[in-house]
Amino acid sequence: MDKSLKIFAPATVANLSCGFDVLGCCLDTVGDEMIVSLTSDPGVKITKIEGADLPLETEKNVAGVAVQALLNVYNKDIGVTIEIYKKIKAGSGIGSSAASSAGAVWAVNHLLGNPFTAHELVTFAMEGEKLASGNAHADNVAPALLGGFTLVRSYDPLDVIKLNTPKDLMITVIHPQIEVKTSDSRSVIKNNVSLKKAIRQWGNVGGLIAGLYTEDYKLIGRSLEDVIIEPLRSILIPEFESVKQAAIAKGALGCGISGSGPSIFALSKGEETANNVADAIRSVYNQTGLDFEIHVSKINNQGIKLI
Ligand code: ADP
Q1: Which ranges carry the GHMP kinase N-terminal domain (predicted)?
Q2: Ligand 1 binding pocket includes 297 (Cβ within 6 Å)
Q3: In the annotation, is 150 catalytic?
Q4: Quick one: DSSP state of residue 2?
Q5: SS3 of 115, please?
Q6: Given 129, 150, 172, 273, which residue is catalytic?
Q7: How far is it, in rounded angstroms, from Cα 19 to Cα 33?
């Protein structure tokens, strides 16, 4: 059995417009790296973090909390050390905390000979998400662990479903370099939703899932609409409407807020369109004076992987 391994822990896009807290997908070209080892010294230790200013204390780092949740079920006497090489910025809205939580439990499970299923790992990784945002959501950790597109059909009991990934689907993501904390962007959301909006939203969720399975790109595009969260949250994101218009004008199927923002995602059919969309978004953001990063990626159907 391996005593140490190195993994790629991918970025993820949660919500996907209509699926607040329930839908997500996994990226291929952006992600953290982690080195996770079993040691004879019991307990979970974060021994190194590069690329971000994050806490080394086990109970303050999502990776430590998630692994501790796993060991509480498996065997508390096991020793684990974790090195995190952060490429996904915290508060980016592309699952920075989820990559660490999911990556850490996936790696420990692998080192132990895979005693837990991917679905069980989701529950451990959710403990890390609870630390990051106060809410044990699964819409980032599920796609990181299962790959592709995922649906959290129910939180109680947890029921996570991996969906089909149409083969030509590509994603373009812009990350404006401003930090929007998940807790802040949650505070602008209202607790009540009108029936009229709810009907439109669940119609879109059904449409998006049908579109993913039938590989009907136009249906996917029509369904990428959010009448509940986006109107409230988009005001926190500079030039959101201009980015969206520019992306659609260049052929994107749809465009929305990635997770809790400030990142914005667009889905496209084919790499050429996804690159054209990236160029259009870049032109919009070049005029803002803000720093930003743009990623173009295919959908990563595997999720976390050994490297
Ligand atoms: P994202 O939306 O990109 O996942 P969040 O705002 O949900 O970002 O999570 C980032 C928060 O989690 C920050 O407050 C950060 O300090 C905390 N955190 C703790 N450990 C980690 C870690 N290993 N990786 C990323 N964020 C972490």
Answers
A1: 66-148
A2: no
A3: no
A4: -
A5: coil
A6: 129
A7: 28
Contact residues for 110 (Cβ-Cβ < 8 A; gap 6+): 2, 5, 306
Answer yes or no: is the C-beta of 133 below 6 A from any ligand 1 atom.
Answer: yes
Does residue 12 have its Cβ closer than 6 Å to ligand 1? no
**What would you report as the CA-atom Rg of the chain, rounded to the nearest whole angstrom?**
19
Which residue's CA is the nearest one to ligand 1's atom 24? 97
**Tokens 């659609």 -> residue:** 248
In the chain, the domains with their CATH numbers are: 4-163 (3.30.230.10), 169-298 (3.30.70.890)
* Nearest residue to 164 (alpha-carbon basis) of 20, 297, 298, 25: 25
β-pair partners for 152: 160
**Does ligand 1 come within 6 angstroms of the Cβ of 63?**
yes
DSSP string, 224-280: ---SSSHHHHGGGSTTHHHHHHHHHHTT-SEEEE-TTSS-EEEEEESHHHHHHHHHH
Query: Model confidence over 274-304: pLDDT tens digits?
Result: 999 999 999 999 999 999 999 999 999 999 9
What is the pLDDT at residue 262?
Answer: 95
CB atoms within 10 A of CB 176: 23
47 among known catalytic residues: no
* Distance in Å from the first CA to the final CA of the chain: 17
pTM to 2 decimal places: 0.97
* Residue pLDDT, tens place only, 69-96: 999 999 889 999 999 999 998 889 999 9
